[in-house]
Amino acid sequence: MKINENYLNLKDSYLFATVGRKTAAYKAAHPEKDVIRLSIGDVTRPLAPAVIEAMHKAVDDMSRAETFHGYGPDQYCYGYDVLIDSIKGSYAKKGVTLSSSEVFISDGAKSDCGNILDIFSEDNVVLVPDPVYPVYLDTNIMAGRKVIFADATKENGFLPMPDESVRADIIYICSPNNPTGAAYTIEQLKKWVAYAKKMDAVILYDAAYEYFVDDTVHARSIYQVEGAKECAIELCSYSKTAGFTGVRCGYTIVPEALIRGGHSLNRLWARRQSTKFNGVSYITQMGAAAVFTEEGERQIRENIDYYRRNAKTIADCLDELGIWYTGGKHSPYIWLKCPDGMDSWTFFDYLLENANVVGTPGSGFGKNGEGFFRLTAFGTHENTERACARIKALLKK
Ligand code: PLP
Description:
binds pyridoxal-5'-phosphate; Aspartate Aminotransferase, domain 2; 2 domains; 15 strands; alpha/beta; Aspartate Aminotransferase, domain 1
């Protein structure tokens, strides 16, 4: 028996553990201090009433033989029509037409970020932005793939563009981005689509934060770019759209037009899912199906507006201090340059000790994150305002 030695090549995921440990140690040493966390990537607003009502009804359905549901329908890898139709309806509003067979219901974007790799050869070269959501890198290291990086820097606004001299087979794009909050415009994505087609590559487009985009210039789906269905898979989630981090539901779009090596990636993915996955619970799918109803959408937008208001509070604070940042506009994340040339962990300690505010050091998301810092808009508005008042008092020159 041999283990998968690729796992030994993973770096310890010490970022959030260290943030937690340092915060706990500070609180233990200073129990009287009121520490505010602007580091959380999890949502705090409760589920929308329309979702709760749909889930209650689904629970009742499960209590009667006539309305009980076991395994989901086979036809679309256990996704119920009502949910698939609502996702198609939400794409139609973005000008994107999907067929039911292209929509795969999942238990969240994180699982599918890793699972989708099953359908690709291990020989592929993978292009990952730096800094970025660590799951892209780690899942490929686990499979032993070669990973190269697209540098996201202050100079390119943390939105790297394709470099035609670099060869890649699998390309990750996360927009709006975690951790930088930077979001590509539809025009910018056209260049990535053209590059992917030239390379015969496949883009894995993570749209987990698309509901935070608040204009029609920035992309909400890669399929807003013509021809993207021939080169892109899109991963999305109800986690940040509708507060489903604890409920677990997402969807992955694998277009019928996506063919590589003469084979349909849609068929390969359907085969993979029907073999290794038994679907998302009926109760969860019914709750998710309520998200894009008229009532549900109005309610989730209220929650998103709440987080947007927090993001604006943080952005206004940084504007007042003259600190450079990206994000905050089409994203719940604000990515700032640490003041006075501090490195990410030095600024973490400085903010924790002097303002009792916790953020996330940018260096934990990749080498280009060094010297940067992530704040999130997922806290309560009251705490966000209090944290910003403290940051202003500390950093005002
Ligand atoms: N993709 C990105 C970019 C994320 O930041 C996250 C969660 O933080 C996910 C995917 C995971 O989403 P899910 O809760 O659907 O697994």
